[in-house]
Write a structure and sequence with these properties.
The chain is of the alpha/beta class. The strands form two sheets. The chain has a six-stranded parallel beta sheet with strand order 1-7-8-4-3-2, with helices on both faces. Strands 5-6 form a two-stranded antiparallel sheet. α9 links the parallel β7 and β8.
C-alpha cells in the first residue's frame, strides 16, 4: 500500500528464536539423529522395518547423486549454460524419503525444486535441463513416470493434484480389497506456497471430497527472503486441523523418518482415509534460485547451525558406526557421482539450439491459416538479419 512504512528486517535473536522453537519438541518425528544414531519410534518404526543396510546404502546413494547433479547444475548456470537453476541443497532427505515411499501407480505433482523426486520416479537428470535452459517445458511423459511436469506458478500444482486425486476417488481407485490396486497422489510445495490461495482452495476441496492426496510441504524456513515465522502463527502442519484432516511434522533432514511418515500418509490415502498434510521440517542451504542472494536476508550462523544437521552426513555416520561400511564404498560412490556429473555437463553443453519456428510448431496440435501466416511473417523477419542462419 502506498505510504505504508517498510517492514523491518528480523533481528538475529528473532530468527534464531524461531528456529529453535520449531526445531525441537515431541511433535517432530525423527528416526535418526544428526549424529547418525538410530532412535526408536513405536509408531513409525514398522514403516521402515524393511530398510536394512543395503536399503540404507541405496538411500544414501540417492542423496549423494542428487546433490551432485544439483551442484553441477548450479555451476552450469553460473557459466551461462542455464538461464536459472533452483537448488535443493539441504533438502535431499525430504525428497528422497518421500519419493521412495511412492508406488508405481501413484502420481506426484512437483513445484520446481523437486529434482530428488524426479530422480526417484525414473527421470534422468538431463531431462530437467531443457526447463532451465529455456528449450522446453519438460520432456518426460507424466503418465509413464507418475510424475507431472514442473509447475512454476507458486502453489498452482496443489489444485492440479487435488483434482487428480478427486478423479482417483471418483473412479474407485482407493479403498479396494487389493492394496496393490489402490492409488494415491502426492503434491510438493514449499512453506511460502502455504500463503497462496490456490493451496487453501486445494485443502478445502480435498477435505470435502476425501481426496487421496498427501500435501507434502517442504518447510525450508524461507519463502525467498521471508522467514516462516512471518507467514504463520502456528507450525504449518497444525493448519490441517482447520480443514478437518490430519497433519504431521517430520524431521526433513532424516531420510528414514521422511520415508516412514510418507509411507504412512500414502497408506492412509490409498485406504480411503483422505488427505494428509506432511510438513517436512528442513532447511534451504543455498539460494532460493541462482538469481537470489541469501546473504542479504539471513544470518551466517543460522546456516552453520543447519550444516551440522546435513541429511547426507547423518546417514554416512550411521553406515560407518552401526554397519561398519568402509572407505571403499564411499570412494566408489564418489567415482559414480563424478561420472554422472560429467555426463550431465556434456549433455547440457551439447544441447541443440531450437529453431525460431518452435514457438509456432509446439503450441497448437494443428495449424491454422492465422498461425501459419504469423509463422511465415516471423521467419521472414528473422531471416532478414545478418547471420540469422547461424
Amino acid at each position: 500500500m502506498a505510504g505504508a512504512p517498510p517492514v523491518p528486517a528480523p533481528t538475529r535473536e528473532q530468527v534464531l528464536a524461531g528456529l529453535r522453537a520449531t526445531d525441537s519438541g515431541t511433535d517432530l518425528v525423527q528416526l535418526m539423529t544428526p549424529e547418525g544414531e538410530r532412535v526408536a519410534n513405536p509408531e513409525f518404526d514398522r514403516y521402515v522395518a524393511d530398510v536394512d543396510e543395503a536399503a540404507l546404502r541405496a538411500l544414501h546413494r540417492d542423496m549423494v547423486l542428487v546433490r551432485r547433479v544439483d551442484r553441477e547444475a548450479n555451476a552450469l548456470q553460473r557459466q551461462g549454460q542455464l538461464g536459472i537453476w533452483v537448488p535443493l541443497l539441504g533438502q535431499e532427505a525430504a525428497q528422497i524419503g518421500a519419493g521412495r515411499a511412492l508406488q508405481p501407480q501413484d502420481m506426484a505433482f512437483p513445484s520446481y525444486r523437486e529434482h530428488g523426486i524426479a530422480w526417484t520416479r525414473g527421470i534422468d537428470p538431463t531431462e530437467l535441463l531443457g526447463i532451465f535452459r529455456g528449450t522446453d517445458h519438460g520432456s518426460w511423459d507424466p503418465r509413464e513416470h507418475g510424475f507431472h511436469l514442473y509447475t512454476i506458478v507458486i502453489g498452482n500444482q496443489v489444485l492440479n493434484a487435488t483434482g487428480y486425486a478427486m478423479g482417483q476417488r471418483f473412479e474407485g481407485r482407493v479403498g479396494g480389497e487389493d492394496p496393490a490396486g489402490n492409488e494415491a497422489t502426492i503434491c510438493f510445495f514449499g512453506d511460502g506456497a502455504t500463503s497462496q490461495g490456490d493451496v487453501h482452495e486445494g485443502f478445502v476441496w480435498a477435505a470435502v471430497y476425501d481426496a487421496p492426496v498427501v500435501f507434502y510441504c517442504q518447510n525450508n524456513q524461507w519463502a525467498i527472503s521471508e522467514p516462516t515465522e512471518r507467514q504463520s502463527r502456528v507450525p504449518l502442519y497444525r493448519r490441517a486441523a482447520g480443514y478437518g484432516f490430519p497433519g504431521i511434522r517430520v524431521d526433513g533432514n532424516d531420510v528414514l523418518a521422511c520415508l516412514a511418515v510418507t509411507r504412512w500418509a500414502l497408506e492412509e490415502c490409498r485406504s480411503g482415509n483422505g488427505p494428509v498434510l506432511v510438513e517436512a521440517f528442513t532447511y534451504r542451504m543455498d539460494a532460493h534460485t541462482t538469481s537470489d542472494d541469501p546473504t542479504r536476508y539471513r544470518l551466517a550462523d543460522e546456516l552453520e547451525l543447519w550444516k551440522l544437521k546435513d541429511p547426507i552426513e547423518r546417514v554416512r555416520a550411521n553406515l560407518v558406526r552401526e554397519h561398519g561400511v568402509g572407505a571403499e564404498h564411499f570412494d566408489a560412490l564418489q567415482a559414480e557421482s563424478d561420472a554422472l556429473a560429467e555426463r550431465f555437463r556434456a549433455f547440457c553443453v551439447d544441447m541443440p539450439q531450437p529453431g525460431p519456428d518452435r514457438m509456432f510448431s509446439e503450441v497448437y496440435a494443428e495449424g491454422s491459416p492465422q498461425v501459419d501466416a504469423q509463422r511465415e511473417a516471423y521467419l521472414a523477419y528473422h531471416a532478414s538479419f545478418e547471420g540469422a542462419g547461424r
